[in-house]
Write a structure and sequence with these properties.
Layout: E1 14-16, H1 20-24, H2 28-45, H3 47-50, H4 56-69, H5 72-81, H6 86-102, H7 120-128, H8 131-135, H9 137-152, H10 178-190, E2 198-204, E3 210-217, E4 236-239, E5 242-250, H11 252-266, H12 272-287, H13 290-302, E6 308-316, E7 327-336, H14 337-348, H15 350-354, E8 372-382, E9 389-392, H16 396-401, E10 405-409, H17 410-416, H18 429-454, H19 495-499, H20 503-518, H21 522-527, H22 532-552, E11 557-558, E12 563-564, H23 567-581, E13 587-593, E14 599-605, H24 610-630, H25 634-645, H26 655-664, E15 671-673, E16 676-680, E17 683-687, H27 693-701, H28 708-721
Parallel strand pairs: 1-15, 3-5, 8-10
Antiparallel strand pairs: 2-3, 4-5, 6-7, 7-8, 9-10, 11-12, 13-14, 16-17
């Protein structure tokens, strides 16, 4: 059997998202709006398969064919007859549910490959003897031949997502290196093109010179459209001795379906802002224009307090090894009014709270652009995973001048982060009951502060294309050096493009640190309804949770490559290091032996020293983070951040050794079952499913009732068209398509 690091356990937690009451309260037009937006999101989410691994589209197509022909109960009878045990069949269900949840065969949280926890030859018998294979023997046999080996392979390069020798990615062709990624980013910056909706494919010409294809995601490919701002970009270029060609049409048949449902949703838009937003999204996905998506995002920001909230596009860059390309994501949700009222109070207090942050006023935005901040019950979240909260859009220029929105996903928080006492690791016994009692409420506070005042704070110093600065060069002083500002962002440069591989994690660390820092403020705790001893318990558990999370983060560190695989977890480890460095017994991490005789560990946080020792340490660290970010000081930012992110076996903590203990006692991240909506006549029905691997599979089997086989054909066709970019003898068995 495979290393437990690369399998999903049979007892993995599975929870269902509950949005029944919020959906019931929607008016008929609101339900139709939500339905079509959900359809657009689910279709677009299929692009993630093509953004993950070469084999992911084939695996998805194979599993979908299998369970469309026989539901999990029917296939179980066949599997047992073929000699599988109950445990092996459950392992197959869990694997399938994992592929659907992550939109691929790599974990969205950690970027680690997972493989079926049963013998390959047994699974082959089940697949080739299934009803799907009986009905379509050539198609099912061909899919298995194409992806069977890769489904199980744990060759070192295939264990994690990464670039070059560090892992596998389909954001870049298999022959690309980090140097190619940097060159491509410089080219994109020179042409004022965003990387968000691109992939990069490298080939070597007959003259031996590399030729790079920058492919934009769009419905259209070569068709010229009058007055389209993209037409002038679609051509060949020579740049720093290499040839670049900008094309479009990536994921075209998938995005065509996205656009169809966005058009239908427009008919039920509640406001002109929603209509204009959708029109710009349609323009963006049709032509491949990030500028159009920015315009749509501007209307989205202006659409205050909608009943049905949504966002869609190429959004988060966590899984691009270079940190610039966005994974497709779409969500649809309904407002939770009770929790939203608390967030509105937090927003009203934001300008005052921003003054509490430990950097000079010149390093804060010139004007706080009051955002929407709502708690939402998710109806649909399509992509590789569901977060607890979001602060979007990610476009720096919009965030600095137009603002942003914050959302806390209430029904996700309610199920995804619930903890059973017996599964609670690395805490002292006397902390466990307190932790369980206050983890949820403290997490509400942390998410609120992280999203609104973490991601929502701080200014980037920019010189625009006309040479004008957005700060006073004469009077603004760097508080770390006592000198005038020496560096800034030039026109076309963004936070992601400049800080690239560390940008996501660095920003998550800054936002998490802001949350920890401001949760000490009594005004914040009062907003969330906590006073006296309860308020102190919320603070303690919030800090304790961060310290424990820093230890748990070691699961996502790869010693062989000295690299982190998950931005949020790297950020939490960095904060743990900062608090350990504060000394005076504020935080300790001690190796122990568990009651089962196996290695264990225990974290300790001295609650009496949080304000006297922890706060000053966090204050110094936060100020340095912000100053380096504001000034675009990449060298200084890397030195600071990578220094804290280094994992060694130096005493007293011996983190490399502790990593083995963390892996030994890790708990798999929960799978989330989402509902479907179905249009019956003019009414929209909500379809819910049981909280199990089989229930999750059923939800996907019923997700595309009209065109499931067509979608599988589209995915495999798109994957096959680009398969040559990842072919090499060590990766793919010979003879596979």
């Amino acid at each position: 059997m495979a290393d437990t690091q690369y399998i999903l356990p049979n007892d993995i937690g599975v929870s269902s998202l509950d949005c029944r009451e919020a959906f019931r309260l929607l008016l008929p037009a609101e339900r139709l709006y939500a339905h079509h937006l959900s359809r657009a999101a689910w279709y677009g989410g299929l692009a993630v398969l093509l953004q993950t691994s070469p084999e992911a589209p084939y695996i998805y197509a194979l599993l979908s064919r299998l369970f469309r022909a026989q539901d999990p109960d029917q296939l179980r009878q066949h599997a047992l007859a073929e000699g599988l045990t109950e445990e092996e069949y459950q392992a197959f269900l869990v694997y399938t549910a994992g592929v659907y949840s992550n939109m691929g065969n790599y974990k969205s949280f950690g970027d680690t490959k997972f493989v079926p926890n049963l013998p390959k030859e047994k699974l082959e018998r089940v697949i080739l003897g299934s009803k799907a294979a009986e009905q379509h023997p050539e198609e099912v046999g061909g899919l298995w031949q194409t992806c069977g080996e890769l489904m199980f392979s744990l060759e070192s390069r295939l264990r994690h997502l990464g670039l070059g020798k560090e892992g596998i990615t389909t954001y870049f062709s298999g022959n690309c290196t980090m140097e190619d990624a940097k060159l491509a980013q410089d080219f994109l910056d020179s042409q004022n093109l965003s990387a968000y909706n691109t992939r990069l494919f490298k080939e070597v010409g007959q003259d031996g010179k590399p030729c790079y294809e920058v492919r934009l995601a769009s419905v259209l490919s070569t068709e010229p459209i009058l007055d389209s701002e993209m037409n002038s970009k679609l051509k060949s270029y020579e740049f720093q001795g290499s040839n670049f060609r900008v094309t479009r049409g990536d994921y075209a048949p998938i995005l065509r379906k996205v656009v169809e449902h966005l058009e239908k949703a427009k008919a039920y838009a509640a406001t002109s802002h929603q209509e204009q937003m959708l029109a710009q999204y349609i323009e963006s996905f049709t032509h491949g224009s990030i500028e159009a998506h920015k315009k749509g995002s501007r209307f989205w920001i202006q659409d205050k307090a909608p009943i049905v909230e949504s966002y869609i596009g190429f959004i988060e860059s966590y899984r691009d090894p270079f940190g610039s390309r966005g994974e497709f994501e779409g969500f649809v949700a309904m407002v939770n009014k009770a929790m939203s009222a608390k967030f509105e109070w937090l927003v009203a207090s934001a300008e005052q709270l921003l003054k509490e942050l430990p950097w000079p006023p010149a390093f804060e935005k010139d004007r706080f652009l009051t955002p929407d901040f709502t708690s939402l019950d998710v109806l649909t979240f399509a992509g590789s995973g569901i977060p607890a909260g979001i602060n979007i859009p990610n476009y720096d220029d919009l965030r600095q001048t137009e603002g942003f929105k914050n959302v806390s996903l209430g029904n996700v928080l309610a199920v995804a982060y619930a903890t059973q006492r017996e599964k609670l690791t690395f805490l002292e016994e006397e902390d466990k009951d307190l932790y369980i009692r206050w983890k949820g409420p403290s997490f509400d506070v942390q998410v609120g502060l992280h999203e609104l005042l973490g991601h929502g704070s701080g200014k980037l110093f920019v010189q625009d294309e006309k040479g004008a600065f957005n700060f006073d060069q004469e009077t603004v002083i760097n508080p770390e050096t006592g000198e005038q500002i020496q560096s800034w962002y030039r026109s076309g440069e963004t936070w992601d493009s400049k800080f690239s591989t560390i940008a996501s994690s660095y920003e998550e660390c800054r936002a998490e640190s802001v949350g920890l820092y401001l949760c000490l403020n009594p005004q914040v705790l009062e907003i969330f309804g906590f006073e006296g001893a309860d308020a102190e318990d919320v603070v303690y558990v919030n800090w304790l949770n961060m310290v424990r999370a820093g230890l748990l983060a070691l699961e996502f560190y790869t010693p062989e490559a000295s690299s982190w695989r998950q931005a949020h977890m790297q950020a939490r480890f960095v904060i743990l290091r900062v608090l350990l460095e504060a000394g005076e017994g504020l935080v300790t991490v001690t190796p122990t032996t568990g009651s089962d005789g196996r290695p264990d560990a225990q974290v300790h946080l001295d609650r009496n020293k949080i304000r006297t020792v922890g706060k000053p340490a966090l204050e110094r660290f936060l100020r340095r983070l912000q100053v380096l970010k504001s000034t675009g000081d990449v060298a200084g930012g890397r030195a600071l951040y990578e220094g804290y992110a280094a994992v060694t076996d130096a005493p007293p903590e011996c983190f490399l050794s502790l990593r083995d203990t963390v892996l030994l006692r890790k708990e798999a991240r929960k799978l989330i079952v989402q509902p479907n909506t179905r249009l019956e006549g003019s009414e929209v029905q909500l379809l819910e499913y049981e909280a199990s691997a089989a229930g999750l599979i059923r939800s996907f089997s019923e997700r595309f009732p009209e065109d499931g086989p067509e979608l599988e054909e589209i995915l495999t066709h798109l994957a096959t068209a680009d398969a040559r970019f990842w072919k090499c003898p060590s990766e793919t068995p010979s003879g596979q398509a």
